[in-house]
Amino acid sequence: MKCSFCGEQIRPGTGKMFVKIDGKILYFCSSKCDKNMLKLKRKPRKTKWTQEYILEKKKSR
Questions:
Q1: Deepest of 22, 31, 47, 48, by most Cβ within 10 A of its Cβ?
Q2: To the nearest 10°, the Cα dihedral for 4, 55, 47, 41?
Q3: Beta strand 25-28 pairing with 16-19
Q4: Rounded-to-integer distance, Cα 32 and Cα 48, Å
Q5: Is the per-residue pLDDT at 61 higher than 80?
């Protein structure tokens, strides 16, 4: 499965699963991704080290 924030593959036996009140399930590969999305409320498209940001920049070129 993939990390909900950075898009990296999560190795078996690692990571964290977060269930929101509305029932949506979020998977995180590290506490870095967890904190960026939930606590700091950052968007993956605006964070330079995420897969979403990298793919968006490739499309615009």
A1: 47
A2: -40
A3: antiparallel
A4: 14
A5: no
60 or 36: which leads in pLDDT = 36
pLDDT score of 28: 98
Note whether 50 and 5 are within 8 A (CB). yes
Number of domains making up the chain: 1
In a domain, 28, yes or no: yes
Burial class of 27 by CB neighbour count within 10 A (0 to 12, 13 to 18, 19+): middle
In a domain, 54, yes or no: yes
> What percent of the chain has a predicted confidence (pLDDT) above 70?
100
- Per-residue pLDDT, averaged over 41-53, amounts to 95
pTM: 0.87
